[in-house]
């Protein structure tokens, strides 16, 4: 064998395992989380009673009295409208705790609600178990009530609270951190590494959210809009602690990123995160919620939709009505996959593990048994093996020629496309650019509900 050929062969052999190892893939808990698709946030605290969005820690627990609070009623609505997990604000920036923590009196313990004997986090958790959805909590590091805030003693206090929530409420599906703080008054140094170690130790099945992970990242805005190009991979350097990475970068990610940290799209059904009566006529419509589904789940993200309880401790009527209508529209749109009549079974069986491998510039044709009329396309990659597609072309056969349906970039876990109403018995997809061969796991053709 000549030396040149030997070198080429050697390079080829050593590059295979290296390439496979280099490509980031989701952990088991990240993959499970991504499949939830739609999750719910419940923002509730003293703000609901003061009308504020950010309390300042001086609120009296006396004002907290949601007389008709009913976790079961609210979680039932979430379950029936397709949400697979609920995350409750156990503590927001005002420091008021919705559970009777042993580490401060600034909690439900000092409120008239259930004569100070209630535990709202427990009631939400129990209702989640009853209806079979995941339970998660938000424990704001920014706490404007606790006297130690701003000193290292606060980190110890915060970890004590975290430990209570991680040990007394069964399996936790997600822990939500954020980096918010009032930098002008006190620039507290949060011990994120310490917080994260504690969650891993006590709840290895929980994913952790912050601006930059470690498991789930922020999408870069609170409007419900993930980037059209959306990589689940990014690079996090030590200097990019929560709060320091640019929203633009988070919104799109990085095809060459070394870490798998997918986005969660958090957005509220109302202008504020907390319930305010004056926003009763500003609730997102069912159609607007459906749009959010397309711009989050349909762009390789997970939707985290906030529905805030009112002063009574219940979801407001309009919010509930719009949620049911939103779900019924989505169900109608995605009930019938028209590609089932014809497409390879691996592409319509609902499993990521069965897929068709697509190579660059090799068109893959899907023939239908009879003509179908559709205006929505769903694509999925087998992300268990990473995210690969960078550019692709979708075309349909118009009887005489291949005509462009869509030129798209990333697919990832799920990509939903709204295209003009099209009738055909043949479509084809051509990968134009990819990191490695694309594992196309699902292909769906749907006709949208007229209510969309
Ligand atoms: C932010 C908070 O400052 C908002 O009040 C809200 O909780 C949002 C989800 O996260 O960081």
UniProtKB/TrEMBL annotation:
GO cellular component annotations of the record: lysosome
Signal peptide limits: 1-20
E.C. designation(s): 3.2.1.51
Gene3D superfamilies membership: Galactose-binding domain-like, Glycosidases
One GO biological process term: glycoside catabolic process
Keyword entries, A-Z: Glycosidase, Hydrolase, Signal
Pfam annotation, one family: Alpha_L_fucos
UniProt enzyme class: hydrolase
GO MF annotations in UniProt: alpha-L-fucosidase activity
SUPFAM superfamilies, A to Z: (Trans)glycosidases
Domain Glycoside hydrolase family 29 N-terminal: 38-325
Task of the protein: Alpha-L-fucosidase is responsible for hydrolyzing the alpha-1,6-linked fucose joined to the reducing-end N-acetylglucosamine of the carbohydrate moieties of glycoproteins.
UniProt record similarity statement: Belongs to the glycosyl hydrolase 29 family.
The protein, known as: alpha-L-fucosidase
Species name: Sphingobacterium gobiense
């Amino acid at each position: 064998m000549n030396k040149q050929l030997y070198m080429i062969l050697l390079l080829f052999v050593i590059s295979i395992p290296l390439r496979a190892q280099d490509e980031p893939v989701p952990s088991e808990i990240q993959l499970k989380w991504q499949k939830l698709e739609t999750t719910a946030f419940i923002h509730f605290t003293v703000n609901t009673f003061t009308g504020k969005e950010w309390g300042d820690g001086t609120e009296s627990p006396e004002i907290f009295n949601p007389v008709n609070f009913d976790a079961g009623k609210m979680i039932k609505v979430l379950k029936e409208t397709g949400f697979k997990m609920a995350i409750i604000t156990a503590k927001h920036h005002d420091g008021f705790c919705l559970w009777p923590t042993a580490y401060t009196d600034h909690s439900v313990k000092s409120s008239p609600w259930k004569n100070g004997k209630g535990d709202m986090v427990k009631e939400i958790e129990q209702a989640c178990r009853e209806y079979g959805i995941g339970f998660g909590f938000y424990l704001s590091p920014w706490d404007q009530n606790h006297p130690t805030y701003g000193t290292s003693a606060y980190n110890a206090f915060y970890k004590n609270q975290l430990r209570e929530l991680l040990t007394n409420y069964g399996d936790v599906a997600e822990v939500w951190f954020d980096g918010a703080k009032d930098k002008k008054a006190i620039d507290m140094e949060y011990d994120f590494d310490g917080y994260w170690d504690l969650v891993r130790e006590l709840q290895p099945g929980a994913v952790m959210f912050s601006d930059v992970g470690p498991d789930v990242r922020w999408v870069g805005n609170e409007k419900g809009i993930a980037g059209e190009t959306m990589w689940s991979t990014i690079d996090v350097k030590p200097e990019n602690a929560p709060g320091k990475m640019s929203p633009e970068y988070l919104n799109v990610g990085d095809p060459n990123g070394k870490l798998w940290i997918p986005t969660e799209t958090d957005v509220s059904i109302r202008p504020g995160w907390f319930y305010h009566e004056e926003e009763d006529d500003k609730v997102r419509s069912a159609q607007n919620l459906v749009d959010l589904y397309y711009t989050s789940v349909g762009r390789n993200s997970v939707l985290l939709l906030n529905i805030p309880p009112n002063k009574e401790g219940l979801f407001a009527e309009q919010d509930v009505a719009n949620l049911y209508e939103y779900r019924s529209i989505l169900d109608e749109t995605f009930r019938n996959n028209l590609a089932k009549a014809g497409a390879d079974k691996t592409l319509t069986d609902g499993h990521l593990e069965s897929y068709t491998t697509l190579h660059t510039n090799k068109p893959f044709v899907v023939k239908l048994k009879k003509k179908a009329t559709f205006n929505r396309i769903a694509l999925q990659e087998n992300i268990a093996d990473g995210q690969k597609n960078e550019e692709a072309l979708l075309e349909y056969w118009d009887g005489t020629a291949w005509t462009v349906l869509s030129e798209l970039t990333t697919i990832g876990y799920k990509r939903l496309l709204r295209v003009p109403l099209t009738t055909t018995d043949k479509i084809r997809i051509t990968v134009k650019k990819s990191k490695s061969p694309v594992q196309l796991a699902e292909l769906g053709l749907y006709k949208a509900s007229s209510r969309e």
